[in-house]
Each structure stands twice: as C-alpha cells, then as structure tokens.
Amino acid sequence: MSSLKTGRKKAGESPSIVWLRRDLRRDDNPALAAAAARGAPVVPLFILDPREKIGAASRWWLHGSLAALSENLGRLGAPLILRRGAPMDVLSALAGEIGAGAVFWNRSYEPQAVSRDKALKASLLESDIEVRSFNASLLAEPWEVKTGSGDPYKVFTPFWRALSQVPFDTPLPAPGKLAGVGGVATEGLAGWNLRPAKPDWAGGLRDTWSPGEAGARSRLEAFIESAMQDYPRARDLPDREGTSRLSPHLHWGEISPRRIWQSVRHAQGGGTASEAFLRELAWRDFACHLLYHWPEIETENWKREFDAFPWARNEAAFDAWSKGLTGYPIVDAGMRQLWQTGWMHNRVRMIAASFLIKHLLIDWRVGAAWFEDTLVDADLAVNRSSWQWVAGSGADAAPYFRIFNPVLQGEKFDAGGDYVRAFVPELGKLAAKYIHKPWEAPRSVLEEAGVVLGETYPAPVVDHRQARERALAAWRDIRNG
DNA sequence: TGAAATGTTGGGGCG
DNA sequence: ACGCCCCAACATTTC
Description:
Number of helices: 21
Low-confidence stretches: 1-10
CATH topology of the largest domain: DNA Cyclobutane Dipyrimidine Photolyase, subunit A, domain 3
Mean pLDDT: 95
CATH architecture of the largest domain: Orthogonal Bundle
Number of domains: 3
Structural class: mainly alpha
Number of strands: 5
Distance between the termini: 59 Å
Helix content: 40-55%
C-alpha cells in the first residue's frame, strides 16, 4: 500500500474498483456508471464475506445472480472478480495489486453495513484512494424523507405522501463498453458452494426463478403487460400470478426501483392500478427507512411493552408450522410454497406469520429467522419490519387483537381452493366447501377424497377459537403490566 | 392489509 | 287488521 500514499493517481491511469454488493446489474447502476465516466480501467468486484450470514435460499439465488452478472460484465469488457474474506482485507489487497485510484460502491442501509462501510471509507481515504458511494437500491434515501419537523416517519401513509414528492433521479443507462484490467486473480464461483449439492433441494427454485438482470427485466415487462391492470384485486389471490414477483430481483439489485417506477409510470393505461403497485414498492423503501433510523427493530420490539410477552417454547409446534403440517390448509400451503419455491404469496405470508405468533404464541423473531433462511427474497429490513407489523410490536403495526382466522382467510382469498390443492396434494380431491376446514367435512366426503385426518393430513394443531382466546389473554396480561 | 360479539332494522309468518 | 316473534342482513363495537 505504501506506493499509494505518494499521492492520488490521475484519473485515466489508476483503475477504479467497483465493489458490487446488492446492485448486481449494469442498468441504472450509479457506481458502475461513475467508474465508467472516470475514464480509467474498471475492475468490478464481488466479495463473499464468510462472517455475513446468508440464508440457504438466498445463497442459491446469489449464485445465479453472480453467474449472470459475470457473463454480462465480461461481455462489456470488464470481467467480474470474485473474492472471499473480510471486505477491508480484500479491498486493500486488490487495490494494492492493481494500484487502484478509486473505489466506488452503491450504499447499503443495514446497520452492520453502514458501520462497516463508514470504517472502510475512512481507511481507503487514508490510503489516498478516492471513495464514492451512491444510491442504487431505494427510491429515496432514508434521510431524504422527513416530516415537517425533520423527523423520520413512523407511519406508512404520510411517508408515502412525502416520498411521492421527492424528485427521484432519472435511471441511468447501462455502460456500453468498459475498459478492464487483465490478469487480476479471481476465485471460481463453483468453488463457493452457494448451491446445495447433497441433497439438491433447489429443483423447485430452478423451476420458478431466473436470477439475473435479464430475468428481472422480463418479470417486470410481463407484469406490466398482463397483470398490472388487475393488480389491486388480484394481488390478494394467491392462486393467481397477480403480483410482480420482483422481490428477489430487487433484493439483489438486479433491477432498480427507479427503473421499475419509471417503467410503470410510462406504461399505457396504468392509472389507479399502477398507483397501487407503486405504493407497495414504496413499502420496501419504508422498511429500509425504519431500519435505518431505528436499527434496533432488527432484534428488539419497537413497542417495548412486548418485551414482557410470554412467548411459548414449543419445538413441536414450530416444527409443524415450518413443515406445513399445522392442519390449517391455507397455512400449510403457504409454508410448503415457501419450502418448494423459496417464495410465498404476500397474503399468505400474513396468514402464516399471524398463525405462528398468535395461534402458536411463538416469538416473531423465530419466524423471521425461518423466513430469512428459506426465502429467495429474504431482506433484513423488509422481513423484520413485516414480522413486527404482524406481531403488533412494530412502529406502524396491525393491532395485536387483529387475529387472522385461517379458515375465513382461505375462503375469502382462495375461494376455489386451487392454491391449497397446488401445494397440499393430499387434499387435492377435496371440494372447495371443505378444503379450508377438512375437519368439518362429513365422513363420506373425506372418504371419497381419500383424506384420513391425523393420517394423510394432520388434524389442526390448535383449535382456532381456543388459540384466539389464549392470544388475547396473553396480550391483556402484558397491557395491564 | 380482521374477526367476533353485540346491536339494529325490517320483512314475513302466524295467531 | 294487528301485534308478536323470528331471523337474515346490515351496522357498530369490542377484542
């Protein structure tokens, strides 16, 4: 590093490192665009930090996303470099190897990343390397949206109003051609073992998803073309392709929220339907806004009175929930969709999360951790704030006494039962009338459908009515101190 | 981005 | 014709 301390190298000579993290794309990538504009050769770098826990489904996704990015960047002329280690060590080593004059990245807003990046920036600057960071993953940065008195928002609707007033930057085009640096050592993606081997449980993921920038773009186009018009109604029906399914692409930054915003706004015939979709997109910004300003919501109840909540320790109940064997078909269908495809429809996430928290009285953090391991779109800010929303412990949360009835929710949003049949095949022959409450079906109906409760499909692990009363009683206790 | 309990209303059957 | 009861349908309150 000593040679770097002799003074800032002139742009055009010393290469730029673009440290890619959750921005695995070329389009609308401000750090990449800035490196291209700087004029010097560009070395795109991805660092796998072994200390950073990444869920199993997310690791699978990351492999695909890096493979796609590597191919795309190679075609642009600047091959992606892959390295493992602590970011500080990797960056300073690589900077030394190539005599880097600049390191650019796009900002991350998670508590750990903020402090890590702050330290990194200081260290690199000390080595006389130019450091610049950008916003690539949010519509507006967490500090750009403020109340009249300058505070962060705690409630979504006013946040949404304020966010709509922020003049977003126009999305940047992908760089056409990049000058690379030859002979830079890179690790092999296959050696990172991001994909499961034995057993290979990723078949359902492969069938469902196309990680990478191209997959993200075609999802967006398909959504705008065929689903957006009916979005306000169909988004709540889990057996339809009524939602965009862009969440995993957004998490890894394969597509930019501003690109989505712009494409949706420019689409013909959007109107109120597109407004409803952009509102949901803004929930993602809101979650990051909350986590940035209240980093403790990752692990602590935002409403501290929930600290006294008598969470149950019940391995058997958690096991039934996570495997989709609760005996409540809509819950089980959701949990199996998650296990098989790495994704769960949003309506069903609320039902399944409510069931774990309120029917089984299991701590929301336990559910959040399970989701983080199994979701391809696992995102700390979105996941944690959503679980707190369901638990009633969050900032802008549903009240605790709002307890979903899994039977009614099923009948309302999966009236024909097709969602249940798709993921709970042992109920496949049961008529819609009973598919959300097989325990109420007459003996003859069950027989004809080949269902034996307690054998081919579980009896309910808890009685809804009793579980509801128990949850309300527990909540009354903590309220009364 | 609930559900269940409780309250109110109004039509129709019936003595 | 009239009052009474029943109960579905809708509205309000409570958890």
